[in-house]
Amino acid sequence: MTTPPSHPGAGHPAPPPGCPAHAHSPGGLRRLYGPEADADLSGLYEKLRAEHGPVAPVLLHEDVPVWAVLGHSENMHMVRTPSHFTRDTRYWRAVQDGSAGPGHPLGPVFTWQPVCSFAEGAEHQRLRGAVTAAMATIDHRGIRRHINRYSQRLVNDICQDGRADLVSRFAEHLPMMVMLQVLGMPEEYSERMVGAARDMIRGTETAVSSNQYVMDALMRLVVRRRAQPAEDFASALITHGSRLTDDEVAQHLRVVLIAAYEATANLIANVLRMVLTDPRFRAQLSGGQMTVPEAVEQSLWDEPPFSAILTYVAKQDTELGGQHIRAGDGLMLGMAPGNVDPVVRPDLSANMQGNRSHLAFSGGPHECPGQDIGRAIADTGVDALLMRLPDVQLAVPEEELRWTASILSRHLVELPVTFAPKPPQDVRARPSAGTARRVEPAWQISTPRPAAHTPAAAVPSPAGSEAGTGQGGELPPEAVLATEPEVTGQGGAPSGGPLARLLRWWRGE
Fold first, then answer.
1. pLDDT digits over 74-85, tens only?
2. Of 56, 110, 136, 192, which sits with the fewest C-beta atoms within 10 Å of its C-beta?
3. Which long-range contacts does 376-379 make (Cβ < 8 Å, 24+ apart)?
4. Which runs of consecutive H residues, i.e. helices, occur in 228-291?
5. Cβ distance 69 to 332 under 8 Å?
6. Is the pTM of this model over 0.85?
7. How far is CA 34 from the centre of its chain?
């Protein structure tokens, strides 16, 4: 690992008692792993807040010391002050002394890589500029078409059963299907890719090998696109004027894939759980006072897809949250604890509708550049599923739902539901309730419809559209099932007038 030419913390004496470096003193410090953290990590954060305030000394795996930033304003100050805090983990004292090396269980997450999320200054501008420019080439209407299509494909796999686990059968697969399409490698979609993506950020014994599996797949893509560019994110990175090396391209593809996948899989599961278990949101969706995108935003406050990010490093001695931070100390960006900071949210039951100041996508120079894609996958995917299964209900009491948690994320193990069995639909068509008779949905989804209008069924793609071309990521012919009967509006007229076409355009169909 390359060491920066001058370490800001070099030559300082040993930190005084109370600093994270004194992890093994009598009484010790609380660990963000192990039984207490596994049982209730959010409760542990609140204990730390009560004991230390908005910034607390804690231990990572293998008792590596770090500061946990728990306050909302303290987190925002850290991410917005690059003169004091850097994402270049080569400056981290634990990295320099070897206690947080590449073989650490969380090594795949915090080990320095040639990507914009670890760069600063001119190098950050070069790399971030390439990512931002590549993001700008993405056809968002086309992405929504893919999301709708993949959502229907996944629902087709379960719709006739009348029951399903929406985590393992929907939330964990839709983001991977979409992101591999965006990157330009839909052929790599598999159960193993899904499993590796989830495993590599959990600090497990197999995290390093899972990371290698993902990187091998990405390097194969880079080699192909270097020889023959296409219209995808990988090609846009390769052909950008920043002249990224193969390793830089592959590492950026990894960051985009894993961050977008894990965040969106958790977000979809959390939104579905909220809709199915919280009477407030179910009633608001039913009454049209809240749309699915607004429900997604509320979920980003209450249950951010990533609980934390590792690691920021102090570039100089400084003060944060009443704590003396020494140069070279590592700090954890606390998204989950920051979002429930009582200073900004004294009443956690209050509706945060319209407020996007949450920490779910970080902030400052390293704010997530792909957050709009994550929102689009969650918005469109949840909307499509609820349209297809309007009577879906939780199959078990809410208190029986199980979670797994790590420092970096918390997600549902499963979300079992029941619904009336329904026939499959054409995967190219707009999601519908899958029936030609009038159906009153359990709650309003997205754009409210006129009261006298029945929900639209599958509408064949217009002639000349991409649906019949077999290009641009079309699903194989064998995946296309019979189209459902056309739903008619009042008087038997087909529900394909200007308003319906406008709504389809708005949804990106």
1. 999 999 999 999
2. 136
3. 376/140, 376/143, 376/144, 376/147, 377/147, 377/174, 377/175, 377/178, 377/260, 377/264, 377/268, 378/264, 378/267, 378/268, 378/271, 378/296, 379/292, 379/293, 379/296
4. 233-239, 246-277, 279-287
5. yes
6. no
7. 24
